[in-house]
Protein 1
Amino acid sequence: MPKSRNDMIHWAVLLVAFLVALAVPFQFGTLWLLGSMTIFLLLLSWSISWRKGQRSGEGFVAADRSSWIFWVMVAVIAVMIPLVAGTPFFLSVMVAFLVYLTWNTMWGLVIGTAGLQSFATVAVAGLAAYVAAYLSTPSGNSALACTDFSGRLLGLPVVHWYIALPIAVVAGVVVGFIISLPAIRLRGIYFALLTIGLVELCRAYVSQDKCNFGGAQGLYGADSFIPENLAGTLTGTTYAYIGAAVLALIALVVYWRVNYGRLGLLLRTARESEPVAEVLGVNVVRARLAVFLVSSAVLGAAGGFYTAYYHSISPNFFSFSTVLFLFAMVMIGGVNSPRGILIGTMLLQFIDQRFVDVDPPEARYIFIGLLLLLVTLLASDGLVSIPDQVLRRRRAGKRGSGPSSGLPEEVGAMEQEAHMPPGSRPETA
Amino acid sequence: MTGTIVTTLNLTAIYALVALGISLTWAGLGFLNLSTGAMYAGAGYGAWLVSTNITSNVVVVLLGGIITGALLGGIVCLTVFLPLDGRSNWEVRTLTATLALSFIGANVYQWKFGPQFQQFPPLFDWLPSFRLGEALVQPNVTGTVIATTVVVTIVLAYIGASRIGLGVRALTQSIEGAALVGINRRATAFAILGVSGAFIGLAAVLLGQINFVEPNAGYGALVKGLIVALLGGLGSLRGAVIAAFMVALCEAITLQYFGGAWVLITLFLLISVVLIIRPRGIAGVLESTRA
């Protein structure tokens, strides 16, 4: 039985890879656990896609749904981390990672599933974080000291984090609704520009408004779910880790329900061809509105969590480099699959944290930029799409008996593309 | 009032240049060059190096900016257009790749030249300043308008007369038609990106007369260039000039009555209103009607 023997070898190799990934941090330090697990998960994801693709020829959207072994491993790693690598520093790196993951998964729904080039993720999460900070920061705070400061807006009381967090969710939904309105009319790059503008607008506004939002310093001293005597301790960061993990889990479940459910199907139809979707009776506007509202609610929750964890928020949150960093995370892994978003976020969080003291400091960002460029040029949809791409190319080579068999693949693609206006190019690679 | 008009005139010339660069690339090659900002800052540094190390002769410094811009355009062609041309997922991948380039560019400049702000020597001091109503027209405004007019005229004449210019025009009108009459798309791509880089480089030197050169200088230029290009309608020369004037006027008025921090806010309000009324800009055509 050659097939089962291949299977045995295959799983044995992955097991060895997992053990090596476990051993690496002992040699190089705890942070490497994040890096080695990223590599392991990438290998696992590649092997799943490769085997599924070889058997069925389906795209990885189909393969993703049945990749339970991948998510079991993710859960194992998530549970393992506080048990074997429990230092406050490493756990705080992981909390940041999980918050990024929550934002990126929701962003993936908008850019990937719905195909809307939105950069507003940062604006939604940031505004929700600001609302939570505004509500839970005592007004006697020095950040709010301001000559014409005469009491809080609408006489709002200072509340605890568990009240501010749900309000942040509501704030997220409201902002998401506002953003979805121009999406009804604007497409592609026009919408991208408008959302970049929105982020810039938020930054400019909160850094101007010293009395309510603390100006360039931002707000600090917000109420936190970590009791004061536990701040910075292992117990405190473990609470935060569990909280962030629950948040990321909610985001993944929402992603799953939307992307693989009816709504995802409607959105993908509208993404591929709006006229076809309308002919089929899809209410495109309502589907897009729904995805914005759902993702914004989770973004708002993560924004509120961010405030409650870091006690503070500053206008830097809205800077273009934040947008670019999150964008690189989503794009390097692959925006059309939860696996890709997870792996990309892990990889960049690892690079960002591990090489934080590298000299010159710009080298880290230059490396991230080069990585993003390289992955974009080589892979059609991020790192996780590589096996699919190779298989598709192989199959296209094997077919070989069609009318264009004499032409190399690129030439065929060029020919086909010549009939298409830019922006509606066919899937050829 | 006339002071506002003078500022508007100066900014119109510069923004029109950046927008032309963005618009030409989109019309000819079908992608939006988000590394425009990195090209802008790079050309600024190129011209600054020329002015500090070689000579501050106006023609040489302007040429330094233009040539650096054109070379950076060639790099964009090599690293984004050629590898991705004809591949799947074109729109998202070109967007991502050019964003990656701009990220790399800003960090390379920061690393090589440091975060400090560099200033050009005044290039147009030899021109006379004169009065227009009650406003004083500074030499740099006169110089900007003259240089922009000269360079744009030369480039448009070149595109109008030369063989490669014929290819550029054919590509902006119809990709299919250009392919049918045997135009080499990949070779023409270098010309298109080179010319748009030259425009952006010129804009960098001219705006360098009133602003500084710094690693992140390109962000403002990119955002404003994008606003002008989209407001005017991608691919339209006339639209770009009208939109550059509107944006410059909006900026000049905001500067005078509200202050510099509000410029981007009012600009985005302007573009939001225009785009919601006319989703393809002032003179833009719907993408589906473009051949």
Protein 2
Amino acid sequence: MELAKKEKFMIEKKEDTSIKAVNTITMVTFYMGDFLFGIPASKVMEINKEIDITPVPLSDEHILGIMNLRGQIVTVMDLTKKLKIDLKITPKLNLIVKDEGEAPVSFVIEEIGEILEIEPSKLEKVPDKLEGLSKEYIKNVYQLPDRLLLILDIEKIIKE
Amino acid sequence: MNFDEDILQDFLVEAKEGITKLEEGFIELEKDKKNVAILKELFRTMHSLKGAAGFFGFKTLESITHFSEDILSKLRDGSIELEEDVVDILLKAIDYIKYIISYIEENKAEPVEDKILDFLVELSNFNEKLKKRIQERPIEKELEVKVEEKKETIEEKKEVKRVEEVKEEKEEVIVSSQVELAETHIKVDIKLLDQLMNLAGELVLARNRVVQLSQKTMDEDLTRSVQILSMITTEMQETIMKTRMQPIGSIFNKFPRIVRDLAKTLGKRVNLRLEGTETELDRSIIEAIKDPLTHLVRNAIDHGIETPKERTELGKPQEGNLILRAYQEGGQVVIEIDDDGRGIDVEKIRKKAVEKGFMSYEEAEKASEKELLNLIFKPGFSTAETVTQLSGRGVGMDVVKANIEKLGGSIEINTILGKGTNVKIKIPLTLAIIPALIVASKDYRYAIPQVNLKELVNVDPDKDLLKVGNTEFYRLRGEIIPVLRLSEVLKENGRSQEQRNLVILNTGERFIGLLVDKIFASEEIVVKPLGRWFKNIPIYSGATIMGDGKLALILDVVGLSQFVGISVEEVEKAYESTSVKIKTSAQETVILLLFDVGEERFAIPIALISRLDKIRENEIKISGGKEIIIYRDEVVPIIRLENYLPLKEAPSKESYNVLFFTEREKTCGILCTNIVGTLEVSPEVEEGIYTHPGILGHRIIDGKTVLFIDIYKIIEMYDPDWFIVKVGKEEKTRRILLAEDSPFFRGMIKNYLTSAGYEVEAVENGRQALNRLSSEKFDLIITDLEMPEVDGFELIKEIKTNPDYKNIPIVVVTSLAGEDVRRKVYDLGANSYEVKLNREKLLEEVERLLS
């Protein structure tokens, strides 16, 4: 009996680790005001400091302009405007995100956070009480020990 | 056999691709025997190979592909199973096809070898065998069990036999499959080329930086190396660009056959001429214009060129002419399809437009020839009375237009009924690299495609621009051009520097002026698309990376023209009305400036006024007995209308408005008490009540009588020597016949011609003109186009076909210039084409033609 129980436990444990090994998602995180946002690392092409943005007059408010990324024209977006966060940021970094089949898109950010491994099973729905930004572009939230990580719905942000 | 080298080369490339596809397909098929999609693909590939072989008359190849195709079709339909023997024979067939292709590549002819013929027999036998197998099948089902055993043995026997066969020929096959197809052409993904081009662009930038650095260090060895690097970079960039270019001949050459076949089917005789086949175009564009061109050529033969019988009756040569012409014109490639067939009946389109509900009756009546011809490009609009099999093939003209526009090109039709049709396609040389003018607004640079550029003018915005309402205009040789300020379009805040650079742009339909802060040089730019966020901003067509690595937006001129203000739409309409073919001048419009002198209201075409300004009474000085003002360092004589027209004297005011009139660098000002505004009206006036020199007539506008003044006459009354362009007193006064239905224009033109020393007979339409011509002698004819009864077009035709008057020069006058009309009147035989209100130019032309 004892042995059987132990064995079962072992199996369970084994399964557990295997899930972890296969299924964690690496997240690139960054701060905007008090919010911590995450984007799957697989979607991030690069982060660079070259902020030479050419404005495109008449474009939407959340579009800062375009920039030259090694011969590609990259559209630069201000996420605070897109997410309606009441915050004025000083662009310091370009977080360059892939856009399937199109030229990449850059989000200007002030400060990059840690690179985190998260477990998809622990992703939660966006809570109603979340305030101070437009929730439609947040796909999920993820509880970190000290704060809440907001996972951005990159496709939606880019496509709309 | 003699083939065009290019076509054969194309065939070989295609065949090699086909072989690769077939080989890959079979490998796939072995994994998944029931995959119908692969079978279908294999069948199609084999089928096109067969077609091509048949076209070139490669009989053996055709036979092999024919039998293989047959087998594949059975597989596809499921009537036979994919058994080992079937795969083997098909693979063997591919080996032979490969062998034949490589032989053709070397020898330009098919091999005649026994082993190939033997294989052909084998293939044919096998095919027969399969047919029997299919016939056996239903019986198999009925007698399933009984036959099963028997069948197996048969199969076994066959198997053995087949193995033997294979063994016999194995060596041969190996020989043939070892033949390496020498690759002279390979297919490369365009994306890869794009990427290469991007990288080359980057390399250029990196090179530039290195060059700068090396100049600082002044190291001789380094400088030399950098020079070499620089040269190689340039050469590499050019070569990469070349990889995308192809002569248009590669598609033009396909047309002789298409035309021949089509003409034969339709019982017509067509002589096709290809011109400019060496014109180079971006490969992707070449591919994309193939179908539209084919469609247009079909149309020309089907609807354009008449049957030999009809042509004989019309006095045309039996053989119709079709010309495919390509040439470069200002960074664009123009392709023309020109036929001398029956042309397009614009009146028929007009009728059809109403019938089919594309236009209301009124719209159709007013519609210009261009507008009507454009209907051909609307989905669901076809003028052919019966849709023939040929032209009714799926793609319509709407698709043709859409495809061409997708390439950034344009298409236009010009036609003369009974004489032929010319379709002109303009497409960019390459989608990737265009010459552009670099301009600046504030701190950023913008690129304007050279194709849209007409000219650059240095202006003084305060002096040279005329402001009406909120819109500014510039007068460029008699034409009114609306002006946009780039900084305002871009909604850039803050005070702009003084903008003196006016870029005149051609949108294809009209001209607009764009005031910019700075103009840099013209550069070749690499066009890069903008992201989807900018699609709804009409003023950009892309972006480009400048030499310093910074970006510049490329301006879309058509998009920009949308920013021309509402009040200018009136100007626009006036523009369009020039190309509008209407019956009388009643629909022709002019933009009038209304102003008051004392209590009287006057009107004058705004195009005649160079600018408007206010002056103070005390600025008016007397000099040499005449009133003058000093205006921008220039002495400008002032004319008071009341001195020349029977008016009450205007009360003295503190300030006046002055209308400036400039001709031949001489300016005078007309004093008025009040500017009322502008109005777009037809130039109709009533004559009779106010018959005073200097007044063309009157009209009631907004309940008030408005007098139309003849400024030329008034200035002449003021100073008879003002317009001295003395023709020199000749022995004999030259006689001019003027046909113009609008009394307004008639009066004005007649006046200035008379004052220039000509004897002018004015008539109201073409019919009257013809009557006069039959009884009197004239040295020159000036005609309007839109007139009742007999219009200008008909008049020109009549004159030019009558041996008695065909040598009299004809000047066509119109209210504003339009390219299609110009072309048409010249085609009809007119000698000159001028704008009515441009007196100076018209007089010059008259003088030229009479000398």
